[in-house]
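Q: Predict the assembly, please.
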Amino acid sequence: MNFEFQNPTHIIFGAGNIARLGEVVSEYGKKALVVTGGGSVKRSGAFDKVVESLKAAGIEFAECSGVEPNPRITSVARGAEIVRAEGCDVIVALGGGSVMDASKVISAAALYDGDPWDMILHGQENVYVPTEALPVITVPTLAATGSETNCGAVITNEETTVKSFIQIPLLYPKVAVMDPELTVSVPKDQTAYGVCDLITHVTESYLNGVDNTPIQDRLVEGVILTAMEWGPKAIADGSDVEARAQIQWAAAVALIGWAQIGTNAGYPVHMMEHTVSAYHDITHAAGLSIINPAWMRFAAKSNTAKFVQFAERIFGLKAKGADDLDCALEGIDRFEEFLRSIDCPTRFSELGINDELFETYAKDTLKIVNDGNGNLPGRPVLSVDDMVAIFKAAL
Amino acid sequence: MNFEFQNPTHIIFGAGNIARLGEVVSEYGKKALVVTGGGSVKRSGAFDKVVESLKAAGIEFAECSGVEPNPRITSVARGAEIVRAEGCDVIVALGGGSVMDASKVISAAALYDGDPWDMILHGQENVYVPTEALPVITVPTLAATGSETNCGAVITNEETTVKSFIQIPLLYPKVAVMDPELTVSVPKDQTAYGVCDLITHVTESYLNGVDNTPIQDRLVEGVILTAMEWGPKAIADGSDVEARAQIQWAAAVALIGWAQIGTNAGYPVHMMEHTVSAYHDITHAAGLSIINPAWMRFAAKSNTAKFVQFAERIFGLKAKGADDLDCALEGIDRFEEFLRSIDCPTRFSELGINDELFETYAKDTLKIVNDGNGNLPGRPVLSVDDMVAIFKAAL
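A: Predicted assembly structure:
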């Protein structure tokens, strides 16, 4: 184990805490840019609560609405322009992962004269690494990406069909105001996708990481078991605030960094999914739900012991030994069954995607992340042929 | 779940990282106060490595050595005086929990004109809450207290025989430089005490916390299982850097705050132990090792389900149901056997402590922390009679 870790985000968690937003924002600025998505926060009443709290604290605000589910760099540029035009000095990200991701990049783009796409890692040689950013306060309305408490952002360039990311400490939100009551209006399908998304965040580090990370392993298993226990409750009864709170906390923990510490893991499933959803405007978690089990069956052949641990600790299976591939595969089958039980797709055909571009996805994925030997980092590393085989298995 | 959480400490973890200390310190100051304990860091060579790294980075330093195993407020005052006399602007805490705890309080005391004891919570009405402190860099040489990555400190007033604490965000170390190689010289008994200490940190929040904290539970179980697997390896072969790294990380995770989030737990075993070790200069962990199993047997009667979970998940026992007190007690027996297997005491008589002051310890404990109804917070709350019964069971 050799690593560095720091996550300075201040978390304020619990039902009703949205009322404290204005007071929180007032510690960082006088005029907020409130970033939102397609309008659900206005229908749910969350936006009104935010406005009420900001006004009570004497905070002015401007608005940047309409951030897409796969947030585009053009939305980032638009948000940055509003910040400059309106003189905002703090950003409130009210929405799901896409809104929070866009907000983080807006926070740096607003103080940068160049093209915001310069900051996004996408295989280019000279990435611009920003050194200053406006403070961001996240207010998640969906339990899914964990973006509220980490420093990453995934952004799509719709012109070049490239979906890539930025992840630098500068972009940690100052505060995450997590109020599970804001998530009760999330529809069943989006709730299920959130559960799939958060589980995939931890299966990646768990299954691609180095050996001997026992505490991180137990934490990951806790996240998965919690999501599998409380997720279906939140899906069955959206107004169950306890279930909403449990999966919201699970989603944050999944990607706050604690589970990833020292694992040195690639995120191959995410990398492949990003490329697919750059071509098809599908929900990120739907892509993950399809690719992850197929990737697992591929990876279990070479990293059997960890998949056996997954099968035993998550599904209570009993393996004959650490090399019991049948047990490992049974665990993956059970996991796929869980995804289907919450109505997540597990085959490309369910989304009308055929094999036409499989090789293109694979090659594009390597343009974003590459181990220097023409393979995608992960355990095992994946060649173009490996990726195509995984995609085909998920057809 | 309703909570706030923030831990801004920057962790640099891994063998060999002590060489980076000077570079790290140079980001915070020009002249360091190096705080140390009884001299083991000089015998082990750790002090020389620190000096070498500081010098290479052009950092001057003064020294405050001789901090006691149960650090005294007089040592804090002495450290603060050296800071002022020598013009130090950053503090390096090189040692175990006592050195790190003292360093944190020195960091605030150096900027406060009054008596440092004013800052320590000890039942008084007007605690002075400091608002400024010098930056602290922790360099733990022992896997035990987790003080390196949290904002708490336990301090003893030798005049009044009061051992109490301060815990405020101001005292988070800026950086924790955790180099497991620095811990290879820790003798077997101190290594074992460290293992006991770190486990007790998490059994407290796990067993005294509210219901429905499933992720925190799994994390705690991971810490305990890791300490029980790797602790004996580190005790058997002190030079096993992998084992040293595993228990060092377990100790940090145990009290970094992640496991405590949302549990709202009292720390009754710690509170009782502090009072006992204020009267007898025993190792903190030895006191914990004696009191914890006795407390567990008392608490299992009223919170049986959680102790059953402990028995099942830590020791693989199979309960007849969540109310299976026999299974719960069997788990506690197994835990006590583990403590004995690493040569930790489990009875007061082993340390030559008799029942003479049991009622005094109990009453003194309530002077430090009290729920307002004359009981010690915890699950269940404890009266003076309850505490005396627990002490007697550990005689």
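The longest strand of chain B covers residues 3-13. Residues 18 and 49 of chain B are 7 Å apart (CA to CA).
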